[in-house]
Every structure is written in structure tokens, then in C-alpha cells.
Amino acid sequence: MKKLKVYLDTSAIGYLDEQSHPSEMADMLTFWDVAKQGDFEIAISEVTLAELYDNKNSDKVSALMAYLSQINYETVELSDEINEIADAIKNAGILVSDKCKDDRNHIGCAIISGSDVLLSYNFKHLANVRTVNGVRGISTLKGYCNINIVPASMLIEKGDE
Q1: Which domain range does residue 46 map to?
Q2: What is the mean pLDDT of residues 70-77?
Q3: Is the pTM of this model over 0.85?
Q4: What gap in Å lies between CA 158 and CA 161, rounded to an integer?
Q5: How does residue 160 score in pLDDT terms, banded at 50, 70 and 90?
């Protein structure tokens, strides 16, 4: 059976060490345990890495990079094709602000990498119905597979509660 390919945006990785959100952090740590076993194909991008390194808290950066060192992942580099997808998202009236450029690039990187899922805790811009529906429309028009944009809780199995 084909492994699920999961693209991690910066917010997902950040929640590995987010004490102020214990439930989400617990979900990400559970996902991470599965990812360390190689049950998922993982992709991140140069955008993700740049955003991680841009964090002013060097202890947080070190902690998150230590987590990344625990798994195998593919790093997606920006390309003309990714820029075209990001532009199509903006032109469709989705994530139009210049502040959303990295978010549009995350979506493009996830699509071009062949990911099934973009794992995100960015509910304002990415993991919401408006963005997901818009991205699906663009993916279909451009001939790409659809991608799900979800938080870790949607990918982990929890016991009967």
C-alpha cells in the first residue's frame, strides 16, 4: 500500500514545541512518533526552513531542528511551476495579501511535491473551507491532484474514547 505523503508547513512543525496549546502539541507529537517510524513520506520546503530559522527564539529553532533531524524528509525548492500555482491562488482571490505569499508557496510546494496532505495549524489562511475549496478548484483546472489541508488530529488514530 502506498504511503501517505504529507507536506509539513511551518505551523505544523512549530506545534511540536507549543506548550501554550497542549492538545495540538500532543497530536503533533503522536503524528511525529508515527512519522519517525517511516509510516508517512514527508516533504517540507525551503519556505518552511526559512520560516523556522526566522524565529527570534533560538532555543525554539534548535528544538524544532532537533525534531526534524529525527525523520527522513524531502526538501522542495521553489520553482516556476510553484510560482505559477501561487499566482493562480492569488488571482482566484484566495490569500491575496502580500503577507500570504509564503502560504501560497506552501500550497504550491505541497501540490508539486505530490503530497496527499498539507499538514497545517494555520486555520486563518490554510486549513479552512474557503482555502481548501479554492485550492481544489485550481488543482483541478491545472490538472493536479487534489490536496487535503488538515491539522495532525485528522491523520492520527486515537483509541476508542
Answers
A1: 4-154
A2: 97
A3: yes
A4: 8
A5: very low
